[in-house]
Design brief:
33% strand; 109 residues; three-stranded antiparallel sheet; 0% helix; mainly beta; globular; single chain
């Protein structure tokens, strides 16, 4: 499902801009950009129910998406993104990271 090239501790920083690529984003991202596609996949395996998978929807960003290109409907909120400060800077932004919940389903709220 994934490949890694190195493992290291990185102290993340918050920034007003970020770019995302080759990653899973929250499904709600589909309302802010068309540069990706939706996918349903297991969120986790429930070992109390015989390893039954719990599924969720995600948004796949294969190609680079700049946070400054996100669409806003209504009033724009001040968003802050977690970034990798050691990543390449592209258009005044660095690689953003998105953390997903294993317990709360954003599609049910």
């Amino acid at each position: 499902l994934f490949t890694y090239t190195s493992v290291e501790v990185v102290e993340l920083q918050q920034a007003e801009r970020a770019y995302f690529e080759h990653t899973l984003l929250p499904y709600s991202t589909n309302r802010r950009t068309s540069r990706g596609y939706a996918i349903t996949m297991p969120r986790y395996l429930d070992y109390t129910l015989g390893r039954r998978p719990a599924f969720a929807q995600y948004f796949v960003a294969q190609h680079r998406i700049q946070s400054t290109d996100f669409l806003w409907f209504g009033e724009k909120t001040d968003e802050r993104y977690w970034i990798d400060p050691d990543s390449p800077q592209i258009k005044d932004a660095q690689l953003g990271l998105m953390f997903h919940s294993f317990v709360e389903n954003e599609n049910e709220t």
